[in-house]
Amino acid sequence: MFELVLQAVFSGVLVGSVYALVALGLAVTFGAMRIINLAHGELVLLAAYMAYVVEGRFGLNPWAAIPLALVVVVSLSWVVFKAIDRIREHRELNSLILTFAVGIVLTNAILLIFASDVRSTSSPILQDAISFGDLFAMKGEIVAFCVSLVLMAVLWWWLKKSWYGRAVRAVSSNRSAAALMGIDPARIETASFLVAGALASFAGIALYTMSVVQPAVGHGFTVKAFIVTVLAGVGSIPGVFLGAILLGVTEALTVTLASSALQELAGMVLFLLVLFFLPNGLFGASARRG
Amino acid sequence: MSAKPASSGATTAFLAGAALLVAAAAPIVLGLGNYALGLLVSALVLSGLALSWALLGNLGGMVSFGHAAFFGVGAYASALASARLGVPVAVAVPLGGVIASASALTMLPTLRLSGPYFALAILAYAQIFRILATEATPITGGAAGLQRYPALPTVFGFDLSTRTGSYVLVLVVLTLFVGIYVAIRRSHVGTALRAIAESEVATRVVGVDSVRLKAWMLILSAFMAGVFGALNAHVIGFLEPDYAFGGTWSVMPIIAAVFGGYHTVLGPIFGAVVIYLFDQLVAKSLIPVGHEILLGLVLAAMVLVAPNGISGLVGGVFDRIKGGRRHAAT
Amino acid sequence: MLRLDGVSVRFGGLAALTDVSFEVAKGEILGLVGPNGAGKTTLFNTISGLVKPRGRIVFDGRDVTSKALHQRARVGIGRTFQIPQPMHQLTVRENLEVAQVFGAGALEPARIDEILAVMELSHKADADAATALALQELKRLEIAKALAIRPRVLLLDEVLAGLESRAKRLFMLKLKELHALYGLTIVVVEHDIETISNLCSRAVVLDFGRLIADGTPEEVFRNPDVVKSYTGGTH
């Protein structure tokens, strides 16, 4: 029994690290523009399907799809930004509806191109099991976990140390003051969407290698990413990581101890509990109350 | 949204009302077949749901991404009440609305949340209800769903379970709800609610109990959505969790209301009829699997090109024709 | 009319107000003075109900410390915001109607017309409150809204900020007119020593969240602590 729980926690941490990657993309654009990109999950899904194409069509390891995924997803992310930029009034609400619409378009486009079949990696290397004492993981999961950690570290460094990264933080805390200091909010906002697209690319391939994808799950990724940002509170990368781990572990434990049907329920209930009782998330400061 | 002088509002309302009566009577007068009437019934059900969504968004500024929650609760409540408890359908349908309102009471904590957080919180409730309906097999029939529950009754010799009958019923209920919406909008409560969306603190500072008003709108919106969910359930004749709480019932009202123009009362209704018929008659035959892509494109286009929807465009045209009408923003 | 007893507010680690106590008599015009960041707006927020403090706030004999924002408006505490906050999507007239119906309890169109006339907004009665008014008109609307709830105490947060001297003088005359016309008790937050001396019969001074002086304007501005906080103190 205890081993089952431990295994669930272990697997939950591994998948949680990828949730963190997905959530960070959402958090970066929210931080810079106060806008939630409801199509973010579909961008992640698109990257996953790029991995499927590279593996299925060219017989390569899915991770070789990075260049293709980056090109496709980052360009699409830029297009979404351009569309949002054209909104004149009620930006918060209209961008919510616009990105919602883009999500619908992308989900159905993927459905049309790739059909509704479930896809996952068939690479023997990645599916191979590796053991840590009594705990098991797929090699693919470990690779995904490591990639996530590296990218989180890179993002943390970028936001803290690079000039561009610090400008993003300036714009997200006070847009007009940042503009007065010579920072062009528009360029920062563009950068945030490009970075989000890059994060989505890696996250999508990671998810393809460790889980299954089909057109319908894009929406689910967005919701999970949103749950994680709520758990984390805005403005804290370690918070996002820990919140994502919490979600991943909660889901895994629910599947192990209860049933897989309740997995989604657990995530939703966790989401509502944090929304209602922890207005600042678990780790950060946020302005969620109207 | 500009402030409208009362006189042009009354003329517009009269014209719209007359056009509607004609449009509503036409299908019966023309003797449309069952298939066509069935389509219209479904379109009107969506209209009712879109109306309830728009009411919540307009009066209080609460945009929900999970209206399927109320739709599904109303459907199951009415079906179960009439099948298991022997409640007459005529009572079960409004009861479905009441139970949906009761479910809204569990959502009261969400009222303190801002924009996207509220939207997704309601979505979370919809998912939770769907999963509960799937798991509570002894009560709800589980994933297999419910089938043996009564259809719409015969009232004063008029059989409401026929296509014509259900069409008239849904139309009457819709008209009733439109009346309620208009009445509230015109009242002082409606005026205050319009301001709450963007300036809640400003209203509270002059004595408006904004939280209570928003709660009432949530309860009313849930009631309306629940009633239409119930009506739909008795028209369709079977229910299952993925259908009753399906994402479609959360997504379509948004597309319909934005397309039609959710700042007006009739916009969502018009939008729902057009979008539904477009989807069923055009989109599905062009792209049988994945036809929603066209709807997504329509929604995206509307937000970018005409965020106030068709009724917003029409209103703009009327403004230009009338010329001397005072514009609020200079 | 209004009494504060040991009012304290902390935001996280920051003490915004510490043990503030003073009284405002009925019909008085009280000045609330202090350098930027001293806690003046926070004090208004506690009186009007936006912020919940420790301590007590007694209004007209009733303890209102635990009453919600909208309830305080209904018992007669009216306030304006430093940056005007009109009610969006409504006309100027509708702004006043909402204030009257929900704050005063009943619609009185005649009184709305009167307030519009006194605040010189009659010509803009049907304009969109959020988009069609100039700054001065927005400030007048702030006061008009507060008047519509039939307030017994009026809290004015830097209504003169951003106005040049002639406009300031006119506004001050307007405030005196309102005071006489409606028999109001008024608390004004202002920086300008001359304004306070001109307008107020009494003044209290805040510095770093503490009350450091309470008396007539002449007494208060001669107080060495007050002089130091204005010239020497930094925040």
Shape of chain A: globular
Lateral arrangement of strands in the main beta sheet of chain B: 1-2
- Proportion of β residues of chain B? under 5%
Summarize model confidence as the mean pLDDT of chain A: 87
State which percent range the strand residues of chain A make up: under 5%
The number of helical segments of chain A is 12
Number of strands of chain A: 2
Q: How big is the Rg of chain B? A: 20 Å
Average pLDDT taken over every residue of chain B: 88
Would you mind describing this structure in some detail?
The complex is a heterotrimer of chains A (290), B (330) and C (235). With 290 residues, chain A is mostly helical. Chain A has a domain at 18-216. Chain A is 75% helix and 3% strand. In chain A, strands 1-2 form a two-stranded antiparallel ribbon. Chain A is globular, with a radius of gyration of 19 Å. Residues 286-290 of chain A have low confidence and may be disordered. Chain B is an all-alpha fold. Chain B has one domain (9-247). Chain B is 73% helix and 1% strand. Chain B has a two-stranded antiparallel sheet with strand order 1-2. The longest helix of chain B has 27 residues, at 210-236. Chain B is globular, with a radius of gyration of 20 Å. By secondary structure, chain C is an alpha/beta fold. Chain C contains 9 helices and 10 strands. In chain C, the strands form 2 sheets. A 6-stranded mixed β-sheet of chain C has the order 6-7-8-3-9-10, sandwiched between helices. Chain C has a 4-stranded antiparallel β-sheet with strand order 2-1-4-5, with helices on one face. In chain C, strand 7, helix 6 and strand 8 form a beta-alpha-beta unit. In chain C, helix 3 packs parallel to helix 5 (135-148). The interface between A and B is large, with 43 and 43 residues.
Key words describing this protein structure:
heterotrimer, B: 330 residues, mainly alpha, globular, disordered N terminus, C: 235 residues, alpha/beta, Rossmann fold, 10 strands
Produce a short descriptive summary.
The complex is a heterotrimer of chains A (290), B (330) and C (235). Chain B has 330 residues and is mainly α.
List the helices and strands and how they pair.
The complex is a heterotrimer of chains A (290), B (330) and C (235).
Chain A: H1 2-33, H2 40-58, H3 66-85, H4 91-114, H5 124-127, E1 129-132, E2 135-138, H6 139-161, H7 163-173, H8 175-180, H9 185-210, H10 217-232, H11 237-257, H12 263-277
Antiparallel strand pairs in A: 1-2
Chain B: H1 6-29, H2 34-58, H3 68-84, H4 89-105, H5 115-135, H6 137-140, E1 154-155, E2 158-159, H7 163-186, H8 188-205, H9 210-236, H10 241-244, H11 248-260, H12 267-286, H13 292-305, H14 309-322
Helix pairs in contact in B: 2-7, 2-9, 2-11, 2-12, 3-4, 3-5, 3-9, 4-9, 7-8, 11-12, 11-14
Chain C: E1 2-11, E2 14-24, E3 29-33, H1 40-48, E4 54-59, E5 62-63, H2 69-75, E6 77-79, H3 92-104, H4 109-118, H5 135-148, E7 153-157, H6 165-182, E8 185-189, H7 193-199, E9 202-207, E10 210-215, H8 217-222, H9 224-231
Parallel strand pairs in C: 3-8, 3-9, 6-7, 7-8
Antiparallel strand pairs in C: 1-2, 1-4, 4-5, 9-10
